[in-house]
Amino acid sequence: MKKRTVFLGLAVFLLGLATGCSKDIDDYPKSNLRAISYFSFKPYHNADKNVFVEHVGEIDEVNKVIRVVLPPDVVLTGLRPYIELSPWTTVTPGSLTPMDFTSESVDFEVRAESGKVAVYSVVRELTYVYTKAELYSVSFPNFRDETGEVLRRVFPNFSNNSAVTVTVPEGTALERILVELELSAASQKASVEVCDDGSETEFVPFSGSGYVDFTHTVIFRVTPESGSAVNYRVTLAYPEEEEVF
């Protein structure tokens, strides 16, 4: 009988302990955190809006203002902002919700777990200037590589005078070769010129696709919207003959 009483008392104690813990968790104060920690427009979510690079907002936490600089030709209707928040926080409108940014300022309501609210104003400016002059690759549509794909070479880097050498079949007439250039997404609005006369000084506009004389090393000059040009060199060569011993 005594042993049964001890077990009963222990069970009551454990039940009381569990109930007390449950009550402590339920009574834990709700979070007052209510902040936007990251705000941007990403190309992946806005490919149809002329967004080609990520535009990250500058957050002024004191005044609850987010400033983001966009290109002048961006489509302001249906833009999808990417938003990161503090823990236990919600935002209205939500992240990736299509929105109209034709107004210079758009408000977002951030609500804490406790119910407290902060309002952030997103102020957009249409003054973004592309600064990159990145020629990614050069392709030759009339030639095929060993896999049967269009012959293509990727430049090793985007520094001035970055160069590639391309092997073409022996006897290929080099005076008129069709070329296609691929610029990086960050090089929107960049202009391209070509020098194919061997002078390395006489450049003419190039649309990105056209016929070029490769009897000399060809220089493609890429000038970004910001104005600092970068030269890329392309040389066409015949296969080296094997030495006969």
Sum up the structure in keywords.
five-stranded mixed β-sheet; 1 helix; mainly beta; 245 residues
Can you describe what's shown?
The protein is mostly beta strands and 245 residues long. It is built from 1 helix and 19 strands. The strands form 5 sheets. The chain has a 5-stranded mixed β-sheet with strand order 3-4-10-9-7, with no helix packed on it. A hairpin with a 5-residue loop joins strand 11 (135-144) and strand 12 (150-154). The termini are far apart.
Summarize the structure.
The protein is mostly beta strands. It has one helix spanning 2-26; strands at residues 36-41, 55-56, 58-60, 65-69, 77-79, 82-85, 90-92, 99-100, 105-111, 117-125, 135-144, 150-154, 162-167, 177-183, 191-195, 204-205, 209-212, 218-223, 230-237.
Show the helix and strand layout.
Elements: H1 2-26, E1 36-41, E2 55-56, E3 58-60, E4 65-69, E5 77-79, E6 82-85, E7 90-92, E8 99-100, E9 105-111, E10 117-125, E11 135-144, E12 150-154, E13 162-167, E14 177-183, E15 191-195, E16 204-205, E17 209-212, E18 218-223, E19 230-237
Parallel strand pairs: 4-10, 13-19
Antiparallel strand pairs: 1-2, 1-6, 3-4, 5-8, 7-9, 9-10, 11-12, 11-14, 14-17, 15-16, 15-18, 18-19
